[in-house]
Write a structure and sequence with these properties.
Elements (H helix, E strand, L loop, with lengths): L14 E12 L2 E12 L3 E5 L6 H8 L7 E6 L2 E2 L4 H7 E4 L11 H11 L4 H14 L15 H13 L5 E5 L7 H16 L3 E5 L3 H7 L2 E6 L2 E6 L1 H7 L4 E5 L3 H10 L4 E3 L4 E5 L4 H13 L6 E5 L3 H9 L14
Parallel strand pairs: 3-8, 3-9, 6-7, 7-8
Antiparallel strand pairs: 1-2, 1-4, 4-5, 9-10, 11-13, 11-14, 12-13
The structure holds adenosine-5'-triphosphate and magnesium ion (MG).
């Protein structure tokens, strides 16, 4: 599956990153078994998958740090096989494990990055100062990075990634270990980057993070892309969505149960669950049907599966807890 743009503007579907038939094995362990990816410019793409699925491997390959066994890759308009150097110049990478050097200060870490990007002394200082400010690290800038908290190190990591203004950034689990507020701050920063037109390739263990941020999500499992789409599309892929009707009058509940034989019953809660994909069309037909049958519930709620359900369904094997709430059959 590939991303499909709805706009007809010429650049609307320009791809920042594409990979076709990407393969990588370590010994006889196949990590990536021929995966295809396409990330349109200025969007956030999230790669999800259980531990060991190959997310970091994919990031390292796409960012030229390790080579693939096979596959075609283009990043920022450059072919990886032909011109990896041009790709390196166009991207920024925040690895899963910190690139921060603890022995030197936050500011010195930033200036080191500026040097690596061949910025002039004054340009390097300007860029470092601006990013330290943006990431709320001014007070800590002159202290050794080893004294930073995990969240501060993560912010410094991302600040270092942004030196040189890369148009495409790879973030491998950027918020792992951050507290909820720091995570939200990081999300805000990522959104600002994207609104400036930056493309973000993100891996995460936090499904709500992908849900919040990503335009498109791919779930990596067993070396392949098990599913790809927007969060909404993925949620519709798996069962678990339903409409719940709750009654207060036992007599009304009883008559509803005899009219709706297919619905799952919860006699204690006087409620019925009708499987539904949650689309407007299906809701309308359920409502019409209830009207025709003369059923009037006191409460009607629509439940759509969340990304956790999707993740378990796609990566967990057969026994899928896709209805964590009590579902009576
Ligand atoms: N240099 C290496 N040599 C041998 N095996 C490796 C190497 N790097 C990764 N692997 C293996 O490749 C698989 C994928 O690893 P990878 O780090 O890409 O997973 P991941 O999806 O990023 O996992 P996590 O969520 O834990 O970060 C794992 O089985 C790992 O053990
Ligand atoms: Mg990883």
């Amino acid at each position: 599956m590939t991303a499909t743009g709805t706009s007809s503007a010429p650049n609307a579907t320009a791809q920042a990153i594409t990979a076709t038939g990407l393969r990588k094995s370590y010994g006889d362990k196949v990590v990536l078994d021929g995966i295809d990816l396409a990330v349109p410019e200025g969007t956030i793409f999230s790669l999800l998958g259980p531990n060991g699925a190959g997310k970091t491997t994919a990031v390292k390959i796409l960012s030229t740090l390790i080579s693939a066994d096979a596959g075609g890759i283009r990043v920022g308009g450059h072919d990886l096989a032909a011109d990896p150097q041009a790709i390196r110049a166009a991207i920024g990478v925040t690895g899963q494990f910190s690139a921060v050097d603890g022995l030197i200060t936050g500011e010195e870490n930033m200036l080191l990055m500026a040097d690596l990007h061949h910025l002039s002394k004054s340009e390097g200082r300007r860029s470092a100062a601006e990013l330290l400010e943006r990431f709320d690290l001014v007070d800590a800038a002159k202290k050794p990075a080893s004294t930073y908290s995990g969240g501060m190190k993560r912010r410094l990591d991302l600040a270092m990634t942004l030196v040189g203004n890369p148009r495409i950034i790879f973030l491998d689990e950027p918020t792992t270990g951050l507290d909820p507020r720091s995570r939200h701050n990081m999300w805000q920063i990522i959104r600002e980057l994207v609104s400036d037109g930056v493309t973000v390739f993100l891996t995460t263990q936090y499904l709500e993070e992908a849900d919040e941020l990503a335009d498109r999500i791919a779930v990596l499992n067993d070396g392949r892309i098990a599913a790809e789409g927007s969060a909404e599309e993925l949620k519709r892929l798996i069962p678990g969505g339903h409409v719940r009707l709750r009654f207060t009058d036992p007599a009304a509940y009883q008559s509803a149960t005899s009219a709706l034989r297919e619905a799952a019953r919860d006699d204690e809660a006087l409620s019925l669950q009708i499987p539904s994909d949650g689309t407007q069309r299906e809701l309308r037909s359920i409502l019409d049907w209830l009207d025709t049958a003369g059923i009037e519930a006191d409460e009607l709620t629509v439940h759509t599966p969340d990304l956790n359900d999707v993740f378990f369904a796609l990566t967990g094997g057969a026994n899928v807890p896709n209805q964590p709430k009590k579902a009576v059959r």
